[in-house]
Amino acid sequence: xxxxxxxxxxxxxxxxxxxxxxxxxxxxxxxxxxxxxxxxxxxxxxxxxxxxxxxxxxxxxxxxxxxxxxxxxxxxxxxxxxxxxxxxxxxxxxxxxxxxxxxxxxxxxxxxxxxxxxxxxxxxxxxxxxxxxxxxxxxxxxxxxxxxxxxxxxxxxxxxxxxxxxxxxxxxxxxxxxxxxxxxxxxxxxxxxxxxxxxxxxxxxxxxxxxxxxxxxxxxxxxxxxxxxxxxxxxxxxxxxxxxxxxxxxxxxxxxxxxxxxxxxxxxxxxxxxxxxxxxxxxxxxxxxxxxxxxxxxxxxxxxxxxxxx
Length: 310
Description:
six-stranded mixed beta sheet, alpha/beta
């Protein structure tokens, strides 16, 4: 009996970049929309397409013998429900860290230096100098101290901010104090820039709700590079519409943000269409991870970033 296992990849480009494949593995093309070039029951490991919609991702269930699912995203919220609790799930943790940290800093600088207003002024040919808060000397609350949170922390260092970090539990690490998220409400009146980079789970869904937003000082900016539902949409819309708070976000609930949604209308809301990890750095970093995963799977090991065991 053959011990060869079959891995599906969502594009030929990815197969070519990752190759050569060890002899005890076979690479096939399956984008989860069209039929694969092999019987579905032969697929043991499935690499999911990047940024596919949930209905497409759900098609992995059609392969009855899949034992490992590899995402191309860091987050895996809802993935167990989506594919069924019958496969290990490995993520692309680390692949998007630099790009998402760039996005967080970019959103902060753009919002606090008035770049969106300058773009609107340019479109109208209007010279309109104003004083903006800037990032230097601001008190920044960074909620999330994992891999991407650490990349954001490193990039904040040269900007001379007063940084308050929050994690799931209070502790001290090599960079100083980490407050528990249970302390976020008490510290909120100090926070002028709130950056969110937590995974979405039961404890973080609507972590930023109307009560927390009300405690932020007038003129504070909320930056979300985590997941849309970490912020209560109705609550942030109310604060943005009033003009009291600013928002600069890469993620939304719902997503895509529908045409006509109030967040499109307000000049103090900067809307980015979930581009956090989507840079030219993504593909080579994803290939590098998959090369390591393929070698691990060929040796009968789990590979990196396993977040769920079936």
